[in-house]
């Protein structure tokens, strides 16, 4: 039986084949992206010339340890390719991301890229998004009012909502790399991700949300029976 972690690695290495010498890369965050970064590091040590822009402090730390040259979006405002994981995706390449708390930077990096390839094991591909709670990054100021507005939005869209402030491992409130809080929102199955995306983005206090729509151009899905590609 192939483990989930091994499938993540297979997807990451399949996506790594799309990397060409001289590319400016967006480096995703999370366990699947970590496999990609380790594979990229091995290729860099073998002579590949690339520059990466990390989407989280943890990603930056791993990339430096692997010897991958790094830059910022101030230095490289346009990237050739971002490779990142997803907490869920559907066949239209709409994603839920942010389980690791890096959704804001991940979305900024993906939006700065000509292409985004998603890497995932087969369990992440779903018919309808929403089994995984949607992370919503919010400003600390007015967090109660913002949370209430999110609940009101869900009611207006005729969706259930269970909203929980994310906590760190030590029980303290989770804080993102950008200094914000995260609300994990269980809306049930999200029948209209586009409508929810627009409604959440319109709430003052919502910094960003984990619906990635229109950003991914392809996905590599690893299952025990082999690798498959989804293309937008």
UniProtKB/TrEMBL annotation:
Pathway: Carbohydrate degradation; pentose phosphate pathway; D-ribose 5-phosphate from D-ribulose 5-phosphate (non-oxidative stage): step 1/1. Coiled coil: none annotated. It comes from Kaistia nematophila. It holds the Pfam family Rib_5-P_isom_A. One of its GO terms (biological process) is pentose-phosphate shunt, non-oxidative branch. Belongs to the ribose 5-phosphate isomerase family. Its EC number is 5.3.1.6. One of its GO terms (molecular function) is ribose-5-phosphate isomerase activity. InterPro entries: NagB/RpiA_transferase-like (IPR037171), Ribose-5P_isomerase (IPR050262), Ribose5P_isomerase_typA_subgr (IPR020672), Ribose5P_isomerase_type_A (IPR004788). Transmembrane segments: none annotated. This is Ribose-5-phosphate isomerase A. The active site is at residue 106. CDD domains: RPI_A. The keyword Isomerase applies.
């Amino acid at each position: 039986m192939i483990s989930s972690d091994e499938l993540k690695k297979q997807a990451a290495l399949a996506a790594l084949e799309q990397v060409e010498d001289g590319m400016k890369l967006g480096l995703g965050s999370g366990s699947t992206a970590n496999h990609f970064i380790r594979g990229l590091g091995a290729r860099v040590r073998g002579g590949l010339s690339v520059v990466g822009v990390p989407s989280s402090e943890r990603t930056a730390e791993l990339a430096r340890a692997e010897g991958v040259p790094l830059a910022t979006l101030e230095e490289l405002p346009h990237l050739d390719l971002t490779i990142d994981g997803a907490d869920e995706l559907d066949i239209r390449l709409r994603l839920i991301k942010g389980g690791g708390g890096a959704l804001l930077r991940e979305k900024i990096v993906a939006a700065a890229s000509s292409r985004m390839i998603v890497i995932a094991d087969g369990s992440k591909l779903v018919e309808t998004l929403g089994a995984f709670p949607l992370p919503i990054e919010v400003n600390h100021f007015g967090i109660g009012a913002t949370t209430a507005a999110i609940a009101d939005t869900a009611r207006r869209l005729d969706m259930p909502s269970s909203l929980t402030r994310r906590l760190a491992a030590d029980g303290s409130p989770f804080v993102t790399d950008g200094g914000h809080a995260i609300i994990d929102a269980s809306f049930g199955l999200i029948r209209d991700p586009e409508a929810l995306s627009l409604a959440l983005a319109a709430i003052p206090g919502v910094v960003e949300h984990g619906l990635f729509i229109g950003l991914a151009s392809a996905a590599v899905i690893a299952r025990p029976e082999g690798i498959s590609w989804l293309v937008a």
